[in-house]
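Dear colleague,

Thank you for sharing your sequence with our group. We've completed the structure prediction you requested, and as agreed, I am returning the results in plain text so they can be pasted directly into your records. Please verify that the sequence below matches your submission; if there's any discrepancy, let me know and we will rerun it promptly.
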Amino acid sequence: MPQRFFQSHYRRSHPLLKRIGDIFGVRTVLDPNPPWGDVSLETIREYIKDKNMIMIGNSESLLNMYQGKLIDKFDLIIRFNEGFMLPEIVEHTGVKTHIWVCGLYQERRIKRGFDYFKDCDYILRLNAKHFQYTPTYIKPKTFAYRSHMEFNKLEQEIQSRSGTPSTGISSIDFFVNYAKTYKTITLIGFDFFKQPTYYAAENYKSPHNDITEKAFVMKHKLTARIIIK
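Please find the predicted structure tokens below.
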């Protein structure tokens, strides 16, 4: 059964849809309001409290920085999507992961990512649309707390060509405006799309808005204790 069936029906509270979703490895989001997943927001707030966190962007520029050892010294390390720490690049990426932010939709790619990051402590799904495509096997580690209305506000502020903010900006927004209890957030491998992701296909062009995403970070830089490497 195609996933678009669930997309067009996910607001309908029908137990049969839930059961079909479980069989096909897809979680249908029937409640438009958060939370979704088994991990509470209070759990995450306590987990990140007073921690120095680092978010590892997937820009190709990361692979010229030789900051792997520095990255692994942070209290909490957050990685995105398919930002795998392959043996040949760990001198740049480091090897540790505490939170994996999954902005992927295709079950095949989600499974590949989960197989790689399965030892992380938690998984962040960014909103109801993302969580709709979350397989049940990652649910025990998963948290997601934006309502449709809240995420739409971020989409309107960022105004990307794809209509969706990048996973990195969405994550910054989550920790700055929802979780809040961290000590600092350091960003590395964020060049606001001057270079493609290091795993992107040749001739890939980012659908995200470099100007508004950079402005978003700069707006919050001082008040939200954000450090850019």
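Summary note from our side: The longest strand covers residues 52-56.

Kind regards,
the structure core
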